[in-house]
Structure formats: structure tokens, C-alpha cells
Amino acid sequence: MTENIKYRTYGSNLIMGIRLCVWMMLCGQLSAQDAHLSQFSSSPMYLNASLTGMYSGNYRAYLNYRTQWAAVGSKPWETFAVSYDRPYKRYGFGAFAMNNRAGAGGFNVLNFMLSGAYEITDDPKMYNHMSVGLQLGFIHKYFNPDKYLFDNQYSLANGGGFTNTLPIGETFNNTTVFLPEANIGVSYYNSNKMQKYSPYGGFSLFHITAPKETFLGLEDNRLPRRFLAHGGMKYRVDENWTLDPNFLFMRQKNVNEIHFGVLSYYNWTKANSIRNKYGQTETILISGLAYRNQDAVLIHLGLVHQGIQYRVSYDINTSSLNTVSNYRGGFELSIIYMSPKLRQMPSLEID
Hints:
The protein is mainly beta and 351 residues long. The chain has a single domain (5-339), classed as Porin (Beta Barrel). The chain is 8% helix and 49% strand. The strands form three sheets. It has a 14-stranded antiparallel β-barrel. It has a two-stranded antiparallel sheet with strand order 1-7. A two-stranded antiparallel sheet has the order 8-9. Strand 4 and strand 5 (107-119) form a beta hairpin. The longest helix is centred in the first third of the chain and has 17 residues, at 14-30. It starts with a strand and ends in a 12-residue tail after the last strand.
């Protein structure tokens, strides 16, 4: 369906119109894929169901916001997510909601999931942790045909152009689809703070039932399954500085995403011998650089202060679309609050 929809072009300049049409056709192919986050580690349940509640704390709440392609359209594409999870003994429970809205056309995807995980390892030293997870929920997709222009609405009159007074030439059975959703995952984490290297990683499978989705009544059109692998290795340079090289690989149908980079965590408070009134260190500075294959260079900045992590990132577009975007990509913000609690469980927070 998305390949048939032609987004509105702005201005009378023919060259810019052609460039925008090419960009929209490419994005029409991409829009069939799931939304991604540059700060994938800041949304653990969207990354892997088995990470639900697998941390050392009482509860955790976080939000994510992403906006992209503001340089090439009247409205940017926006992603907003809120999540909450907590541990209970060897279990983790949580839920998240994510909403994606695609520009001026009003194409909207809402995803709501209940998430649970269970730690299956029994390491006497509590260093090695492996967990499995399951998510159940739904996906709701909606679009408004009146906000789009279609092939049949192109007219050669007055030098050529689109007009919404012409019939669209498309027949939609509905403009809303409701899909049942189920995801599974498994992950591993090493929490030994006495060693310099702490590996972690996991695998996820999304849309395991491949539910039917169509606005046109096509019986064989289904949401493609998405496979995801992620991992990394925390390296403690010294007692104040930790490096975290990481990677992510995703494949959905015939589209691959490869992401690799490194994050740096520097304990500024401890390094400067500054203590708060409780005698605990407070402030960690975050920086990082990453690359998403054939797409963007990512810059990360942030800090952790009094249990709240703030991170911002920016995607510098390096794909063939940079002739239209002028290298401008996406801005992303994440905020995570974790209520502390001493607990011997897998720890995914910053050390």
C-alpha cells in the first residue's frame, strides 16, 4: 500500500519535486519496516523482551522521543514511547507503548505490549545471568487517504502537477488495521565488576505470528517477522571510566540494519572526589559515536545524575538521501529514572 501512496510535493521547482518524489518512494519501502531507535539501549523492552526487569533496582520508568526528516517535509516523522518495568525475585514485569506518526500524511502506528522475563541461570557467584522473555499486545495502524496525493491525481494541465480534485483511482477496504502481536527474546549479561571485561548480548524475534495486515483486502499480505541480535563488551579502563563498544543487527524481510559504535561513561563525581550528602557518587558523563550502515553517523551525549539518565543523540545522514536532507537526519532524546534497591540480579544500568 505504501508504495502506491505519493506524498505531497512542495514548491514549483521541478528538480526539487523530482528529488522529493525519489525520496518518498524510497521511504515508502522503508515505512513497511518497524521503527528503530538510535539509542536502542535506552529502550530495553523494545530491544528485547528478556531485558524486562533485569536490573538492580526497585522500578524503572523511561521515555523516548525521536524526530527525523524535518529537512525534507512539512512535518517530521515522530516516535514517542513510554515504558515501565520492575523486578520481582527471578522475574521481571513491565509494559510499553510506542507511537509513530509519519509526517503530514497522518500514517500512524501505535504499539502496546505487556512484557515479562525470567532469569534461568543459577550462578552461585551471581556473575553470569541469562533470561528469557515474552511480550503480548497489539499494533494499531491508521492513515487518512484525504491527506495524500496519488498517481492518478497528476495532471499535465498548466505545466503539470498534482491536484486533489481528480479521483484517486484507489479502493481501500479500510483505513485502520488492528494486529495481534507476540515477541520473544533471550539475553545474557556478566555482572562481575572485579574484571575489566563484561560481555552482554541477546537475540529477539518480533511478530512471531506474522499477522495479516492490509488496507486493500489482500489475503496474503502479512507483517514480516523481524530478527534482531545485539551485544557488546563493557571495558573498565579504570575505576572512573568505562567504555562500551556495542552492535545491533536487524533483518526484516529483505531489509538489513547494521549498527555499531562505542559509548563512554566517565564518573565525574567520583573522579573529582565529590560526594553528596548520602556519601554516594552522583554524576556520570556519557558520550559516544556510532555508525548505522549506509545510513548515518550518530553522536551521543548525556549524563546520569541522582538516578536519572538523560541522553540526546543526533543522526548525521550519510545515505544517498543527503542530497535532499543536506546531511540532516534525526534528533533523539531519552530519559530514564530508576528507583535504587540493592538486589542481586542482572544489572544493565551504568556501572
